[in-house]
C-alpha cells in the first residue's frame, strides 16, 4: 500500500499489502496528535521499513514521548508539512516493537471496515454499536509482548 504525507514529500510503500490490524484510538494523546475525535492507525510489521532508509530518514523528524505503560513512543513526522506519518513503541526495556503504526489517513486504499475502537473510556464521540471496542488497550494488541513473553 502506498503512504503519502499531505505535501507529498514523504512517500513509502508498506511492508505488507495490508495491515495486521486497524485501530481507532480515542486516547487523549491520539486526539491531540490527530486534532480530531480519535486517531486511526494501520498496524504493519516494522521489518521491511525499519531501519529507515537514508532517503526516508532525511525527510522525517522524530519526537519521542512516554507511554502509559512505562515505555516510549517514537513519533515520525514530515519535515515539510508536519504531518504525523507513523510511530513505533519502545518497551520499558528499550526493545522496539515488531510493528509500526502508520497513520490511517495517509494509507491509500486502506480498508476501514472492521477497525477496532480502543481507549473508548476517553471517547468524545459515540462509538458505533456492534464494533469491537475496548475501554483501554485490547488484551491482544498487535505488536505488544504478551505477559508470558515478558517473564
From TrEMBL:
Give the GO molecular function terms. carbon-sulfur lyase activity; metal ion binding
Residue span, CENP-V/GFA domain = 1-135
Under PROSITE patterns, the record lists: CENP_V_GFA
Q: Which UniProt keywords apply?
A: Lyase, Metal-binding, Zinc
Checking InterPro entries in the record gives: CENP-V/GFA, Mss4-like_sf
Q: What SUPFAM superfamilies does the annotation carry?
A: Mss4-like
The UniProt family comment states: Belongs to the Gfa family.
Its protein name is Mss4-like protein
Q: Which organism is it from?
A: Parachaetomium inaequale
The uppermost taxa in this organism's lineage are:
Eukaryota, Fungi, Dikarya, Ascomycota, Pezizomycotina
